[in-house]
Every structure is written in structure tokens, then in C-alpha cells.
Design a protein that fits this description.
Length: 304
């Protein structure tokens, strides 16, 4: 295919017929050569590396209309295929793929990012024994294993939001097979600065300790409020209206129904009923009695 695309590219803007491309190849059967050339050009067209005219044309010097053929032209993608970019500089690390090194390589790339195969080629793995890749050499098997290992790490980091992948672009390896370009996020930079998993565990332990201290301080404050309410309110003498006021205050501070009920010697269900306004009998304190009498008399005081 590469040779066929080179012939089409050499023709320039004028293009070239498939029959003329086939003449560059030497075989004993010209028809077989032309058929195979058409197959190669069709595959290159499917990959976007060449294009053809809409209608068939006669080659120069040919009058037989049965020999009409397409005129082929090279595309920018075909020019890029013939002149690929040089592979980036790779520094072997002498270790298998791991999370720290992958993040460090992405952090060094910065906003430009880097492709997955470029990351995989930094690492070293032992030659694997992979029957499914028996047709490949040991070096290719090792590269396949490194790439699969690296992709697993990148997918796991992307799941946590530490990296993300952009669009695909032709890779200088694997016959220009498209590969994703990966980028590190702000969370990934922070994750790397924290020391990865160990650093995150340390930060989580510190956060949990601070939360436990806050909850202990809150619980101590609630215990002080409950103790004060228990001392200041006698269940036998405290009026119902005052008890309701204290209950609503304690509940607003975050005390549980059971803790409030223990202060007044009632059940938590009764505390819940008081909070929703359910009363079994009116309050008998002087203030509430006078208020009910005043409301019942419509504010008019009569004599004896």
C-alpha cells in the first residue's frame, strides 16, 4: 500500500490512473496486478489517504472505452502517512508501568498531553508468554503488554478524575493506528503532590480525626445543655408551657428525642407529640390560666 500511495503522490495534482499505477509493479499476470492495485487503492481511500474522480476516464493513449479507470489523487492524510512525524524521545525507566510514573509523565507533558503508546514505551516489562500473540516477535509482545498495562492505569485514573483523554490522532507506531492523547487534571496534580494513595490516606485520616473532634465537642455541648435543663426543670413542678419551651430549644440545638425525654421523665414518643403540638390537657400555670380566662371573657372583666 505504501508503494502505491507513493506513486500516486509522485503524480502530483494531475493524478494518475490505476492502470498506470499497476505498471510500476512487475508480475507475470497484468490483470492480477491491476486487480490487486485497485484493492490497495480502495483500502487507502477508505483510510482517507487517497481520493479519486467521480467518473472513470481513459488513460493517455488508450481508445478502448472498456479500459476506463479512475484517476487517483493523494490527500493531506496520505502525505502525512508517507512522511510521519518522528517518534518522540523516549527515556527508558527500567521498571514496569505504575501509577506514579504515569502521572509524572503526564505532568511533564503539561497542557500538550501525550499519547498512550508514548507513555507505554517508557516502561520495561519481562518478555511475556502470550499464545494469542504467537505471530508477533518477543519485542512486539512486550510492547503489547506494556500498552495494555498502561491503558489499565490510565482508565483507572480517568475514573477518579485525575486524567482525561482527548481526541484520537495517528500514532507513529502500529502502522499509524489512531491513539488517544491523555492530559492530567488539577486533581491529578494535587493527587501526585499529596503522595498518591498514601498521601490521600493520610489526608483522609486527618480529616476524619478533625471531624471526630468536632462531633465530640458538639456532643459535649449537648450534654451540658441537657444537664442544665435537668437541673433547672423539675418534672413534677415545671409547667407544661415551660416544658414545651425547653423541649423545643433542646430539639433546635440537635438533641435527640430520647435524651430530651430522659430530662423530663417522658418517652420520646411523647416528646415528638409535644413538638407537633399535641396536648392532652391545658397548662395549669397562673399565666396560662389567666390568659384563657381573659380570652374566654373577650377581655371584659365583670363584677361579683
Amino acid at each position: 500500500m505504501r508503494r502505491a500511495i507513493e506513486i500516486v503522490a509522485a503524480a502530483g495534482d494531475e493524478g494518475i490512473h490505476a492502470a498506470e499505477v499497476a505498471r510500476h509493479f512487475q508480475t507475470q499476470n497484468p490483470r492480477y496486478t491491476l486487480s490487486w492495485t485497485n484493492i490497495l487503492l480502495s483500502r487507502a481511500k477508505y483510510g482517507g489517504r487517497v481520493t479519486r474522480t467521480r467518473l472513470r476516464e481513459l488513460p493517455p493513449g488508450v481508445t478502448d472505452r472498456r479500459l476506463r479507470a479512475y484517476r487517483w489523487f493523494v490527500t493531506p492524510a496520505g502525505v502525512e502517512y508517507l512522511n510521519p512525524e518522528p517518534p518522540p524521545a523516549i527515556t527508558p525507566l527500567g521498571e514496569p508501568p505504575n501509577t506514579r510514573r504515569v502521572l509524572e509523565l503526564l505532568a511533564e507533558a503539561g497542557g500538550e498531553g501525550t499519547r498512550g503508546p508514548d507513555i507505554a514505551r517508557h516502561f520495561t516489562v519481562n518478555p511475556p508468554v502470550m499464545p494469542s500473540l504467537g505471530d508477533l516477535g518477543p519485542g512486539s509482545q512486550s510492547l503489547q503488554r506494556r500498552l495494555a498495562w498502561t491503558n489499565q492505569i490510565l482508565d483507572r485514573l480517568a475514573l477518579h478524575g485525575y486524567v482525561y483523554k482527548g481526541g484520537t490522532e495517528p500514532s507513529p507506531y502500529y502502522h499509524r493506528v489512531p491513539a488517544y492523547r491523555w492530559f492530567i487534571t488539577g486533581g491529578g496534580v494535587q493527587y501526585l503532590a499529596d503522595g498518591l494513595a498514601e498521601g490521600r490516606r493520610r489526608v483522609r485520616r486527618e480529616r476524619e480525626a478533625a471531624e471526630a473532634a468536632r462531633l465530640a465537642e458538639h456532643r459535649k455541648r449537648l450534654d451540658d445543655l441537657l444537664t442544665q435543663a435537668y437541673v433547672e426543670n423539675d418534672p413534677e413542678k415545671t409547667p407544661a408551657c415551660e416544658r414545651e419551651r425547653v423541649i423545643r430549644k433542646l430539639r433546635g440545638e440537635g438533641c435527640t428525642l430520647q435524651d430530651i425525654g430522659d430530662v423530663f421523665g417522658i418517652t420520646r414518643e411523647r416528646v415528638r407529640q409535644i413538638l407537633v403540638g399535641l396536648r392532652t390537657h391545658p397548662c395549669r400555670c397562673p399565666d396560662c390560666t389567666d390568659r384563657r380566662w381573659f380570652e374566654a371573657g373577650d377581655g371584659q372583666v365583670t363584677g361579683d
